[in-house]
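note to self: dont lose this again. the chain is below, predicted strucutre after it. 453 aa total, dont forget to put it in the shared folder this time
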Amino acid sequence: MRATDIIMKKRGFFLRDENGNKIFSGNTTLSKEEIKFMIDGYTEGKIPDYQMSSFLMAIYFNGMTFEETGVLTECMLHSGETIKLHGFENIGLIGPFIDKHSTGGVGDKISLPLAPIVSACGIQDPMMSGRALGHTGGTLDKLESIEGYNVNLTEEEFRQGIKKNGFAMMGQTPLIAPADKKMYALRDVTATVESIPLITSSILSKKVAEGADGLVFDVKCGSGAFMKSFDDAKELAEFLVKTAQSMGKKATALITRMDTPLGKTVGNFLEIEETIECLQGKGPEDVMELTYALATEMLLLGNKAKTKEEALALCKEAVSSGKALDLFLKNVKEQGGNPDTLLSQIGKRRSSFHAQILAEQDGYITLDAFKTGIAGVYLGVGRNKSDEKVYADAGFIVHKKTGDYVKKGDLILDVYGKNKECLEPTCNIIKTEALTYSNTKPELKPLILMEVK
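---
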């Protein structure tokens, strides 16, 4: 078997008809053995970057079937270690093991209140999360803004955390899906990132590695999302769900709106504060709506409820009883933080480098998610490169959201930066690009656009 032949097959070829016109011909569907040959060879260094680049470009143009994508995901998954959760019933790991994955957004802190809520309802959630990159936030950075919180868990520590609190939160280790790490770096520099089969296999190879039996996907759609259009978001949602199902996992997806920041905070510790508010039942309406919607789907996948109404009632009870907040604080302690210190900092911990965005005219405002996220990178909320530092106390507090009417001089955003120098370019982006005014109220689309099963 040769890499060149496999690349040629996935690329396809052209023939000429009787009139001399070129027509595409050839079956570009690869076998399990061919896909495995490419992934194993590249992971082991036997297939060079230039051949894998050609292979990725062939996939970009010709796509993959659900079955091919499932095989690709399996090969990437087994290129390294996987976390084992089954077989540990004797220590309390009885499942069901259900997790959620978001495709990323601005102000998207949903994983943080979600995990303790579903755990309070009997779900065991093995949550492996990522870091901020570009305009999108990262769950790990938010967690690490809690003083002492450790996301670098061993497999045994991960299992013990799930046993004790129903959930644990950790980052991807170097030994989990190493093929994905190598391939993603190559995709980033070869213009092959926007391939739905490649996106799907990248996401699933990591999520399946954590040991989950079922997955709920939050596929974002809008200016602040990876998928800008509804049709693209729908296609990705369908690929994620059907590929996961082809691998023997339960799966469902919600397509949700991400054209304006979610909630009232954007930033690492600021979003921890909002998480506490949500677990006290006092979170922003949009954050609570989405958290409950995703939690409901997780309970249904885990057979903890028979109907959406029953699942929603259980989730709300987990919050109103205080059980979900208690589990969150126990997790903080379990992973190295101090719950008392955390609670004492709520509302007080702010960067000393501060500015405000005031309304420059009367009117209805629109606050664009993507531009707000880009402005946040200047503040130190996110990063342009994976090795850049983020700042725990940087971010925005959103006082007026898209659709709100403001009068000139009203406070729209509090801005907190990593240093004094970052405030001016950040505020300039918000004022000139992210924030617009109108005499008519903008159309507010539903937060949850579609469910895919």
